[in-house]
Amino acid sequence: MGQKILIIGGVALGPKAASRAKRLDPDAEITLIDQDSIISYGGCGIPYYVCGDVAEPEGLRSTSFHSLRDADYFAREKGFAVRTSTRALKIDRAKKELHVKNLNNGQEDILAYDKLVLATGSRPFIPPIPGVEADGIFTVSDIHKAVEIKNRLSQGQVGKAVVLGGGAIGLEMAEAMADLWGIETTVVEMMDQILPRLIDKNIAKMAQKHLEEKGITVFTSERAESFCVEDGKVTAIKTDKRTIDTDLVILSVGVRPNSQLAKDAGLAIGSFGGIIVNRRLQTSDPHIYAGGDCVEMADLISGCNTYAPMGSLANRQGRVIGSNLAGKAESFDGVVGSFIIKLFDNCVAKTGLSLEAAKALGIDALASFVVQADKAHFYPDSSMLFMQMVVEKGTQRVLGVQGIGPNNCSLLARISAVAGILKYRPTVSDIANLEFPYAPPYAAAMDIINVLANTAQNILEGRNTAISQEEFLQRFSARESTDTLFVDVRAAAQGGPLMEKYAPHWLNIPNNQLRERMNELPQDKEIILVCNAGSRSYDAMCLLQKSNTKTLNLQGGIGGLKRAGIIL
Amino acid sequence: MGQKILIIGGVALGPKAASRAKRLDPDAEITLIDQDSIISYGGCGIPYYVCGDVAEPEGLRSTSFHSLRDADYFAREKGFAVRTSTRALKIDRAKKELHVKNLNNGQEDILAYDKLVLATGSRPFIPPIPGVEADGIFTVSDIHKAVEIKNRLSQGQVGKAVVLGGGAIGLEMAEAMADLWGIETTVVEMMDQILPRLIDKNIAKMAQKHLEEKGITVFTSERAESFCVEDGKVTAIKTDKRTIDTDLVILSVGVRPNSQLAKDAGLAIGSFGGIIVNRRLQTSDPHIYAGGDCVEMADLISGCNTYAPMGSLANRQGRVIGSNLAGKAESFDGVVGSFIIKLFDNCVAKTGLSLEAAKALGIDALASFVVQADKAHFYPDSSMLFMQMVVEKGTQRVLGVQGIGPNNCSLLARISAVAGILKYRPTVSDIANLEFPYAPPYAAAMDIINVLANTAQNILEGRNTAISQEEFLQRFSARESTDTLFVDVRAAAQGGPLMEKYAPHWLNIPNNQLRERMNELPQDKEIILVCNAGSRSYDAMCLLQKSNTKTLNLQGGIGGLKRAGIIL
pTM of the prediction? Predict the structure, then answer.
């Protein structure tokens, strides 16, 4: 007789752990239960089902060779039993038994286990807003909801939609509805930026601008107060600033770990409400494993715990649990926080900490911001990448990198180059010399990822007194009442018009004339140097710094401002 | 008075080091000399100039803001002097003087230095083949040669071309000539694969097949013996196997470091003929720095020295030298060997060691080979990636990763995810849990880079007794005279025809029937399991291994064979 393994939850981690355990230990008797009738689906694919890229919901439930992953599939191909529509009621840790209930016929049952796996996932947070129970208000939490949303869209019941919450799922759903279905879509986000906590405000602004170009209305710093309901159906959402008519609402304001079953069994729960696990993914009861959306994880950058509900992490953790169920001693060390999202023709991605997240953790950090092409600059059809690297001041440790670029893998390549290294605590000099593969069709000889580190180093060492777009704009709007001089080192064709418009505060001295015209510049005034991307202005700064210690350099230059929708 | 810095060589590293040093130390008096009249160009871009992607040679010599990087540019914008057409004759280390000669007027001069930088680069190896001096035989070593080649192509003087050497430059030139200019192009490579020493034979075969699909003829294991010359002009090349008519020959059989000047000055030279430098990129004379194509470097994987002439490394090393010239103490630790090349609609890339390279270094290594889509398998328009990971057996240390995929950044993203980590000596479990960013349009939840590590681990632990394509084909051709049974676990539509064709050696039992039909399989015969990509056959192997210890699994499956042009 083999060991008895029970697994609660069958979306991502559960089937993975069961399959792996069965391969390593063919004698094990493994049963997976799930309260839903549908298991093993790619939840992250729901927006692509809604937008039509994936035609049928079965597309999210099939293997790459078109086998539908239902109970029969797992029994035949993977060798373990699945009980769907079966809810776990209680864990009796002393007896090593699980109490379950069949939701179809109400029958209760007790299942014995040697080892138990909690893969109970997460549930969407439902904000306590009056009217939130009305028809037409959806979370994006499972296939059933996805089918219902798509049915309403395809049946022409939806002309206008509101997405509450500007996080990843909300924005993917906004694109899905606006793009294929042409629905007038509004995103309402409580924080002062979209993708809050994931990326910094300057990158978020660029992403928001692109959404707006694609016809999506985005309201940030705006709080939903109530839903207007007629005949039980939602007709509008009232915020603290306006009323927005709508036929459908997507609630995407975060998820919470499903940890009640574990809590009731007396297992340790952390400050995020997730189950606490060790590196082998055992809970405080070594016979019970847990992973995926129901657990907290160590953040390998900060050392603190974090909550990172991601399908990819669930899959990787599922394999570790499967191995350990079979007697191995594998570990999952924690997360660095990698993230990527397609937004129409753009891609936004990050790994590690944003500047804001680092500061919130009490880390004294700064950011370098670089605008550079994704290929050798002489190679045709290149696109611009706008990237930011976050660095701890004292140690020069790289904490994270983020950016926005075209909808292809060019940004992913730069982000992934850093994702794997973060746990080794790299410094800027490690990234400065990172051996990013080079050929003109794919990268620059000095790639943006290297330049980000070089720029950060120059800032850290005081050589590049860089200012952010926000700091620049503050100074620019105050120009009439201050002494600050803006020196534009681009060619006359670019810098000239601004000099005309903003004289005497704006001066245009092209970089190749600067050495001979330095005497035109004051030595006692604050000078802000600008060019198109921030590198020629850095050159200029090195030249001027000796005679004027008040020079500042706009990171990312005028090109960076333009990308964020700011035209001077 | 600032320090006097002399730099010999003005292509990649020289201008970078000079610019950086001048920014950090504005008082330094910096002079760069180069024997050529043209400096500071993107040599790696020459094939893209030849093929027309870059219209004019000036495209390779300009900044992203269209300034031509000539002597005047560097004087005005970077603040250092450039003397072109000036050859370095001799270094007098005792007096700290450099003897130079103006190649235009023959005048000799002596320049004093406090610090000297050797950025003398490399020269193409000219094989000692009779006729090699004939007109029409070119190396791809500088802009002048590139212009001459392109002139001949554009003037219709070339109908047929031969590229001698199937390395990176050779293949890029072959594509350039065949693609835009429609020239009948043949590549002749002495080794038994293209891209030798860079990637392994199985990946090279796939790349070769693609070149052939695009009309390029490739002869491997073929040695050039002489050139046929008429009226001083090359008309054909004779190999040990045939005579190939040609109007133009590209010699691309490797480069050698230009280290004679250093050697004459008594500086240490290594076994590859490159200048020996420490991590601060100082030669054996601490007042003399060197970097780029003229030096040897530590290989961070093997610990041995290696020769890695790459424009990207030269740029990064140039910055380190520039910093150190200005009194900093930066270091460049060595190289891991990242490489990428565009071949028509494909991309081939690697970082670290190939299996063959590892074995040549005496490392006991094996390879996992995986075929997987570059996006979530349910997401439309995905492409297949074919990748291989090389792992040291005892330590489970990952030594390198390589692959072939579509001509976009999807392969680069996977290679770059590993490139930066290699110096930290990652094991397979580090890569198994590498936090590659996940969203369906860009990656799989369990991405190929994770699966490569998982597969390697299964092989290392004896769970997956994987065989390579080569081993499979040996057994398959010997099937009539051996007991080996081939069991195809794909659906009947795929596996059935092969069963009919190769019975009784080929059996088709779809994976979902295997558990109930196991009794049809012999327990004493060698069984080779195949599916389309190698994952279902691994599932089957886990099931069968208990009753039959002679099961083997074809890595990459039938799909992998097809990609290499092998149809059973």
Answer: 0.96
